[in-house]
C-alpha cells in the first residue's frame, strides 16, 4: 500500500510540476499585464520560488513523492539493489507518464505555450552542460540534506535559489531543465523523444552526473554520525 501511494504521488506531482511551469509563464508574461521587462522577470522569479516551496511542502506531506527522476535516482544509488530496481523500473516511468499527460493537457488547453525546451547547441556540449548543471544541483541538495542545520524554510530557500540560478544559466543552451521526465513530456509532444540528442543530453548525461555526484559526495564528506561520534571521542 505504501509503494502504491508513493507511485500515485509521483504521478500527481510530475503532472502538476509540468502544468505549474506553463501556468507561471502564462501568468507572468500574459495575464498580469506587466509591460516592463525587469518587473515582469522579478515577478516571475518570485512566483517560481514560491512554486518550489509549494512542491517541497508537497513532497513532505506525500512522504517522499517526487517529480524529478534525478531525485529518485540519487536516493536509489544509496540504497540496496531492490530499491534501485524499483525506482528505475517503476517510479521513473510513472513520473514520465505524469509529465507526458501534463504536457498534453497544457498544449490542448493553451496552444500558445510553445513546445518546451530544445537543444540549441551541439550534442556534446549539450550533454556537458546538462551534466554540470545536474552534478551541481545534486551536490547542493546532498549538502543541504546532511550538513545544514537550519530548518525547512532555509534549506528550501537555498535550494530554490540555486536551482533557479542554474536553470537561468542553461536556459538558452539546453533549457536548463535538470529534469528528464519533464523534458520527455515536451519531447513526446513534439515527436522527437526517441532521438539520440534527447537521450544523450537529457537522460544519459544527467543520470551519469547524478551517480557521480552521489559517489563523490560520499567519498569527500563523512556522514553526520561519524562527525558526532568523533567529536564525542575528542571531548572524552
Mean pLDDT: 88
Helix-strand pattern, N to C? HHHHHHHHH
Please state the structural category.
Answer: mainly alpha
What would the principal axes of the Cα set say about the shape?
globular
Describe the structure.
The structure is a single chain. The protein is mainly alpha-helical and 236 residues long. The chain is 78% helix and 0% strand. It has nine helices and no strands. Helix 5 runs parallel beside helix 8 (196-220) and helix 7 packs antiparallel against helix 8 (196-220). The longest helix is centred in the N-terminal third of the chain and has 30 residues, at 2-31. The chain starts with a helix and ends with a helix.
In short:
The chain has 236 residues and is mainly α. The chain has 9 helices and no strands. The chain starts with a helix and ends with a helix.
How does the SSE layout of this entry go?
Blueprint: H1 2-31, H2 37-61, H3 69-77, H4 81-109, H5 123-146, H6 152-170, H7 180-190, H8 196-220, H9 224-235
Helix pairs in contact: 1-2, 1-4, 2-6, 3-4, 3-8, 4-7, 5-6, 5-8, 7-8
